[in-house]
Write a structure and sequence with these properties.
- By secondary structure, the protein is α/β, with parallel strands linked by helices.
- The chain has a single domain, classed as TIM Barrel (Alpha-Beta Barrel).
- The longest helix is centred in the middle third of the chain and has 21 residues.
């Protein structure tokens, strides 16, 4: 037996998220484009044209608005805006401003991410985040985005998943090409503090452009669950991989919560999911309750800072499982709101089937994209989730 309620407050952000490199195509000045064409073994295929969203962003926004979504999170590409050190492309800034204006014209509130994993190749070649002067270079880029974000953008994300940036840097220093079967590699401490410093510098720049902008960053929450007796081990494991980045958000206007699955921790560290557990196309455990745990843990660290679910979803070829997963996740969000957590929005990952950092196989999208024609087709999950955006009435189970 089910009934419907409306747990989401007025003004609640209801949308989907994307990242520029994963959907735009031909991001040739970025470090990731160079990685994709360097013969690196863990990159299965290059991004190439991706979803051609650089040219088809208006189609994407038309679909999202038509489906009932009210918000769209997308990133702008540093490698396009500053293709050479100190050269800021007026054409690219104008392109991204057209996207902002296009979203607003369609009734979509834009949330703009300034950095979503990719950097200009020249920035990478000079040593990346830990090189001398890197923080100042990022702050200079943020200041240069004024034509894009200074007006009409209510939410700005400085850096997406800084903890994963530090984790990937740690893996690279250790010579690891892949992640362990459970848990994450040890983050690089120097990178951790560099991106925290870069975030703080970026927050200052954004607030200087327009103090009305809500500025924050997003953290990948792995939902570390301690087995009996492993509470201290879990806290020690989690802190450098997650909590230090949440602590750095305590003075922000909001923090983005991004979660997909859980990680169980025993006395000796992370434990793989049970062999009979349902797994997604990324081989993560199917665990819709993850986002509820992530929200509650984040709130416990950041205190009164408003929370926005900026990524949550599932890689699957079975769209009925996507609906089931999102239903479970949204019920978790609703319960957290009812328990008094200050949650301002929910944005699913992802608006489109896209390039998932090495492969097109994991399909997270609410909207399918034909790789030959780039035709967009809204999946039933997109129609269903967009409809909830209109009604805000979520089917709720008893108990």
């Amino acid at each position: 037996m089910t009934h419907s309620t409306t747990p989401f407050p007025d003004g609640f952000l209801w949308g989907a998220s994307t990242a520029a490199h994963q959907i735009e195509g031909n991001n040739t000045n970025s470090d990731w484009w160079h990685k994709e064409h360097s013969g690196t073994s863990h990159i299965e295929e290059p991004s190439l044209d991706a979803c051609d969203s650089y040219h088809r962003w208006d189609e994407d926004m038309d679909l999202l608005a038509g489906l009932g979504f009210t918000d769209y999170r997308f990133s702008i590409e540093w490698a396009r805006i500053e293709p050479a050190p100190g050269h800021f492309s007026r054409a690219e800034l104008a392109h991204y401003r057209r996207m902002v204006d296009g979203a607003i014209a369609r009734g979509l509130r834009p949330m703009v991410t300034l950095h979503h994993f990719t950097v200009p190749q020249w920035f990478d070649e000079r040593g990346g985040w830990t090189a001398e002067g890197a923080v100042a270079l990022f702050a200079r880029y943020v200041a240069a985005t004024a034509p894009v974000i200074a007006e009409g953008v209510p939410y700005v994300c400085t850096i997406n998943e800084p903890n994963m940036i530090a984790v990937m840097a740690g893996a690279a220093k250790a010579g690891d090409v892949g992640f362990p079967s459970a848990g994450l590699p040890t983050p690089d401490e120097e990178t951790t503090w560099a991106v925290i410093e870069a975030h703080r510098a970026a927050v200052k720049e954004v607030r200087a452009l327009n103090p009305q902008i809500n500025v924050g960053w997003t953290v990948a929450n792995q939902v570390y669950q301690a087995l009996p007796g492993a509470e201290e081990v879990t806290a020690a494991y989690r802190h450098p991989r997650e909590d230090v980045f949440l602590e750095a958000a305590r003075d922000d206007d909001w923090v983005g919560v991004q979660s997909y699955t859980r990680t169980r921790i025993g006395a000796d560290g992370p434990i793989p999911a049970a062999e009979d557990a349902e797994r997604t196309l990324t081989q993560w455990e199917y665990y819709p309750a993850a986002v509820g745990h992530a929200l509650r843990h984040t709130a416990g660290i950041v205190g009164d800072v408003p929370l926005v679910v900026t990524e949550n979803g599932i890689a699957t070829a079975d769209d009925t499982r996507r609906v089931d997963y999102l239903t479970g996740a949204l019920n978790e969000v609703a319960r957290a709101i009812e328990d008094g957590l200050n949650i301002r929005g929910y944005l699913a990952w992802s608006a489109l089937d896209n390039y998932e950092w090495g492969s097109y196989r994991p399909t997270f999208g609410l909207i399918a994209v034909d790789p030959e024609t780039f035709a967009r087709t809204a999946k039933p999950s997109a129609v269903w989730l967009g409809g909830l955006g209109r009604s805000r009435e979520l089917p709720r189970g008893e108990g």
